[in-house]
Design brief:
With 365 residues, the chain is α/β, with parallel strands linked by helices. The protein contains 15 helices and 12 strands. A hairpin with a 2-residue loop joins strand 8 and strand 9. It is globular, with a radius of gyration of 20 Å.
C-alpha cells in the first residue's frame, strides 16, 4: 500500500509518498499554510497513492488511535479546534486540500495526543476544581506522540531488546520540544500538558511558567489574554531569552561570548536535564535515553550538556561518538548502564504504519 503522509506542522507542510516497503518514493516540504493550488500540484506530482495518512495534532478524549476519516470523524475533528486553536486548523486545512486532490482515496487521521492517552491518572490530572475538570475536560494530553512512539520502538530495535522490557525516555527536541517516559512501549508521562506550552523551553514557546506570574501580569501590565497568548507562543523560549529562536544561531552567538545566548542555553539545558530525570522517576529507573528532532539529532553540545549531570541515573555519553553521530547512532560510553541513542525523527513511518493498521482493521469490519 502506497501511503501519502501529510504532516502539517506549525512552520511547514511535509508531504511524503511511502511505498509498501516504506521506501520514500517522493517528498516535498512546503511552507506553512501554502496556497491550495500549490498543494494540489505537488500531490499530483508525487504520484499515485492508495491511502492518505494525516497527522492531526489533537484527538481529545474522543480519538485514542488512528481512525478512518468520514463525514462524522471530520465533524469531530472540527469540534476539537478549540483545544488546539493554533495547530488544529492547519492540519484540517491540509486535510481539506488533499481530499479535494484525491477525493476517492481513503484517508486516516493519526493523532499526536493518542500515544499519551493512557498515561496514569496521577500523571494526567491537574489539581483543579472537579467542576472545571469535568466541564471542560481539563487534563494533561501531551503531544509529539507520533515521534515519541516511533523513537521508542526504533530504539528497542537498535539495541535488539523487546520494547516491552524497556524503560525509555524520548527527547523530541525541535522548534517544539517535549519528553516522554515510555515503559513497556506505552507512554506513562510526558512534559507537555493541556497545551503544547507546558514543559521544556522551546524555540519561541515559554515552557512551564508559574500561573500566578501570568495572573499577576494580567492585573498589572497593559495587555490582554490574546496578547499574552501570542507572547507565550511566539516571543518566549529561546527567542525571549536570546532574541533568536534558532538553536544553531544561539549556539553560535554563545560561542562568540554573547551573554544572553549563554543564559538561554543554560536555562534550556537545565530544564532538559531535570526533565529527563523526572521522566526516569516516573518509571522507577531508565534503560534507554533517546534524542530525536532537529535539535536532538544535530546539536551534540546540547546532548552533552543535558546529560552531563545525569551520571547518577547511569547515563554516560562518549564524547567522540556524540560529536560524530549522524543518522541513527549510539552515543553511550562503553559500559554505561543506560544506552544513549540518537534517532532520526520519522513521524512519516509511524503515520504510514498507523494508516495501514486502521485500513486493515476497517476492512475486517
Amino acid at each position: 500500500m502506497r501511503v501519502l503522509v501529510v504532516n502539517a506542522g506549525s512552520s511547514s507542510l511535509k508531504l511524503r509518498l511511502l511505498g509498501s516497503d516504506d521506501a520514500v518514493l517522493g517528498e516535498r516540504d512546503l511552507t506553512a499554510s501554502p496556497p491550495e493550488a500549490e498543494v494540489l500540484r505537488v500531490v499530483r506530482e508525487l504520484g499515485e497513492a492508495d491511502a492518505v495518512g494525516h497527522r492531526i495534532v489533537h484527538g481529545g478524549r474522543r480519538y485514542l488511535g488512528p481512525v478512518l476519516i468520514d463525514a462524522e470523524v471530520e465533524a469531530g475533528l472540527r469540534d476539537l479546534v478549540d483545544l488546539a486553536p493554533l495547530h488544529q486548523p492547519k492540519s484540517l486545512a491540509a486535510m481539506d486540500t488533499v481530499s479535494r486532490a484525491l477525493p476517492d482515496t481513503p484517508a486516516v487521521a493519526c493523532f499526536d495526543t493518542a500515544f499519551h492517552a493512557g498515561i496514569p491518572a496521577a500523571a494526567a490530572t491537574y489539581a483543579l476544581p472537579a467542576s472545571w475538570r469535568e466541564r471542560w475536560g481539563l487534563r494533561r494530553y501531551g503531544f509529539h506522540g507520533l515521534s515519541h512512539g516511533y523513537a521508542a520502538q526504533h530504539a528497542a530495535g537498535m539495541i535488539a531488546r523487546p520494547v516491552e522490557e524497556l524503560r525509555v525516555v524520548t527527547c523530541h527536541l525541535g522548534a517544539g520540544a517535549s519528553l516522554a517516559a515510555v515503559q513497556g512501549g506505552r507512554s506513562v508521562d510526558t512534559s507537555m500538558g493541556f497545551t503544547p506550552l507546558e514543559g521544556l523551553v522551546m524555540a519561541t514557546r515559554s515552557g512551564s511558567v508559574d500561573p500566578g506570574l501570568l495572573l499577576w501580569l494580567l492585573e498589572r501590565a497593559d495587555m490582554d489574554e490574546r496578547e499574552m497568548a501570542h507572547a507565550l507562543e511566539h516571543e518566549s523560549g529561546l527567542a525571549g531569552l536570546a532574541g533568536e529562536g534558532d538553536m544553531r544561531a544561539v549556539l553560535a552567538a554563545a560561542d562568540q561570548g554573547d551573554d544572553r545566548s549563554r543564559l538561554a542555553l543554560d536555562v534550556y539545558v537545565y530544564r532538559l536535564g531535570t526533565g529527563i530525570a523526572a521522566m526516569a522517576a516516573a518509571m522507577g529507573g531508565l534503560d534507554v535515553l533517546v534524542f530525536t528532532g532537529g535539535v536532538g539529532e544535530r546539536a551534540p553540545t546540547i546532548r552533552a550538556a543535558a546529560t552531563g549531570r545525569l551520571a547518577f541515573l547511569g547515563i554516560e555519553v562518549d564524547a567522540d561518538a556524540n560529536r560524530s553521530a549522524a543518522g541513527d547512532a549510539e552515543i553511550s560510553a562503553a559500559g554505561a548502564a543506560v544506552r544513549a541513542l540518537v534517532i532520526t525523527s520519522r513521524e512519516d513511518l509511524e503515520i504510514a504504519h498507523q494508516t495501514r493498521e486502521a485500513l486493515a482493521r476497517s476492512s475486517r469490519g
